[in-house]
Amino acid sequence: RNVDDDGQCPAGQLCLDPMTNDSAILDSLFESLQGGNDTVPIEYKRCCYGYCIDLLEKLAEDMNFDFDLYIVGDGKYGAFKSGHWTGLVGDLLSGAAHMAVTSFSINTARSQVIDFTSPFFSTSLGILVRTKDTAAPIGAFMWPLHWTMWLGIFVSLHITAIFLTLYEWKSPFGMTPNGRNRSKVFSFSSALNVCYAILFGRTAAIKTPKCWTGRFL
């Protein structure tokens, strides 16, 4: 925010926006600001406030140091372009600034040239989209997979049910009319019930195979 008519900040900390990263110019502006003869143009003066400024004030109080604030000249956070760093990272590497206080994202390239404090604030980005006006069709559950994948699943499921029935009927211990006088018969429909229950992860009152080959399958 801008300063008042007297060049003072009603809230926050006074900071400069000289639109340059020349350390000599910055030093002369701060010397003029701190001295009795304030010749800093009022259009350079700004009021900096917010969470990071409050944190900096508390840190300066606890560690007993003074600070001067200015807004980085190019308004950039910092990227490596044309063989040199721009923005905040460039000012730190050149010595124009001793510390950068802002919501600064940490990445590998920046971590190789400057030191970061422990993260004290985290945020995340999200994308907002308009919800569909129409209701999802009855076959919407099949959208995640291609139709060929679904075809392969159901073909393999029925083949498994066929072999499960054959194993159960060929085993002397299976639920067949000839298997030790069993009262129940394990049919192809029983095998389908078992396979579909396993596929959809639902429990049901089904006949389970008795022979070890069918159980292993």
UniProtKB/TrEMBL annotation:
List each copy of the Ionotropic glutamate receptor L-glutamate and glycine-binding domain by range: 41-94
TM stretches of this protein: 147-166, 186-205
> Per the annotation, which location comes first and is thus the protein's main one?
membrane
Q: Where in the cell is it found?
A: Membrane
Q: Which GO terms describe its molecular function?
A: ligand-gated monoatomic ion channel activity
The record's annotation in InterPro entries points to:
Glu/Gly-bd (IPR019594), Ionotropic_Glu_rcpt (IPR015683), Iontro_rcpt_C (IPR001320)
Q: How does it sit in the membrane?
A: Multi-pass membrane protein
Q: Is-annotated flag, keyword Membrane?
A: yes
Keyword set includes Chaperone = no
Q: Which residues form the Ionotropic glutamate receptor C-terminal domain?
A: 37-214
Keyword field: Glycoprotein, Ion channel, Ion transport, Ligand-gated ion channel, Membrane, Receptor, Transmembrane, Transmembrane helix, Transport
An annotated GO cellular component: membrane
Which SUPFAM superfamilies does the record cross-reference, listed alphabetically?
Periplasmic binding protein-like II
Q: Fetch the PANTHER family from UniProt.
A: IONOTROPIC GLUTAMATE RECEPTOR
Record-given protein name:
Glutamate receptor, ionotropic, N-methyl-D-aspartate 3A
Q: Which organism is it from?
A: Cornufer pelewensis (Palau wrinkled ground frog)
> Highest lineage ranks of the organism?
Eukaryota, Metazoa, Chordata, Craniata, Vertebrata
